[in-house]
Specification:
four-stranded antiparallel β-sheet; cytoplasm; PH-domain like; NISCH protein; 2 domains; globular; PH_PLEKHM2; kinesin binding; alpha+beta; 348 residues; PH_domain-containing_M2
């Protein structure tokens, strides 16, 4: 252990997304290759001597107790646990985290010493995995509020690969088998007889961990919410969502020394007539079983919305992925009085 193929795969995956900035400690981890990376895992991270590193992924993560702080993490999946190697700046990002993170070595003044905190979620504590719409993110749920983490991969391939690797590792766990299920028909299996409402599609793994996928009604609810924001200007039956993607909105600051920009996480939704930007709560929904009250904010909050007919031009950057798009709209007060003069001039 490990095989050459696995070491090559982990080395290829060990790349920080270029648009995200991380601390020196995580940059050091990203510079490790092959056997050095595996030795780093066993000497600094692994809790058990005989556990195997199976998968590595860089992703933004959110914690249930700090839903407003998105932080970059190196996610390491082993045969015993999921490790989140976090940016050390995360500790100082929120004053309410002092009880969440027990810091003993936080007063190190030596600049050559770089601290990273590592959040560990043991596979035996894992209860469910919720996959987000279009595999843009997934939420891992343990037995308490401290053990709920959302990985915002913003990439269906990364999500799919991690879920597959997680299922494979869970298959190695020795848990008591679940009782044999009673044969049920389709409606009693997936529906509630009281409401007639379809539940989310659940796959119960042999390790008794639930993998929960969104059903078609979730898209329908989102389409209804978006249509509501349009003040009833659209015909709802013919209204549909063409694109749902987790993106970043670039806020540009013109400073005296140098121009800087910050990336604000947003959900972009494209319909046949409008472009919407939402602030979405990726961690609180669906409600965990121990939640005593609903979250303080709605799952979707409209940040901006524009009509496609008012779109003047789209500017595209020349860099490789991730691609930067700038949408330029005509900012006209009385939009409905605008006439399309090109048709009168050039056409019959």
């Amino acid at each position: 252990y490990p095989s050459e193929f696995l070491m090559q795969k982990i080395t290829e995956d060990n790349q920080i997304p270029v648009h995200l900035h991380v601390s020196v400690s995580l940059q050091y981890v990203a510079g490790l290759k092959g056997r050095a990376l595996v030795e780093f895992f066993h000497s600094n991270i692994a809790e058990v001597e005989n556990e195997e590193l199976r998968h590595l992924m860089w992703s933004s993560v959110l914690f249930y107790k700090t839903p407003n702080v998105e932080v970059m993490a190196c996610v390491l999946l082993s045969t015993k646990a999921i490790y989140f190697l976090l940016d050390d700046s995360f500790i100082h990002a929120d004053e309410h985290q002092s009880d969440f993170w027990n810091k003993e070595n936080s007063d190190c003044e030596n600049s050559s010493f770089h601290l990273s905190c590592c959040f560990v979620l043991k596979l035996n504590d894992l209860q469910s995995v919720n996959v987000g719409l279009f595999d843009q993110y997934f939420r891992i749920t343990g037995h308490s509020a401290d053990h709920i983490v959302t990985c915002l991969t913003r990439d269906s391939y990364n999500t799919h690969t991690f879920i597959q690797q997680l299922m494979a590792v869970l298959s190695l766990l020795a848990r008591t088998p679940s009782p044999e299920p009673v044969d049920k028909d389709f409606y009693s299996e997936f529906g509630s007889k009281n409401t007639g409402k379809m539940e989310n599609y659940e796959l119960i793994h042999s390790s008794r961990v639930k993998f929960i996928y969104p059903n078609e009604e979730e898209i329908g609810d989102l389409a209804f919410l978006v249509a509501e924001k349009m003040d009833g200007l659209t015909n709802l039956p013919s209204f549909n969502i063409l694109l749902y993607v987790l993106a970043f909105q670039v806020n540009h600051f013109e400073g005296s020394a140098q121009n800087t920009s910050s990336l604000q996480p947003k959900t972009l939704i494209l319909t046949s007539s409008d472009l919407f930007i939402f602030d979405e709560d990726y961690i609180s929904y669906p409600l965990p079983e121990f939640a005593k009250e609903p979250p303080k904010r709605d799952k979707y909050q409209l940040a901006d919305g524009r009509r496609i007919r008012d779109l003047d031009r789209v500017l595209m950057g020349y860099q490789t992925y991730p691609q930067a798009l700038t949408f330029v709209f005509d900012d006209v007060q009385n939009q409905d009085l605008m006439q399309n003069l090109t048709l009168d001039h050039f056409g019959e």
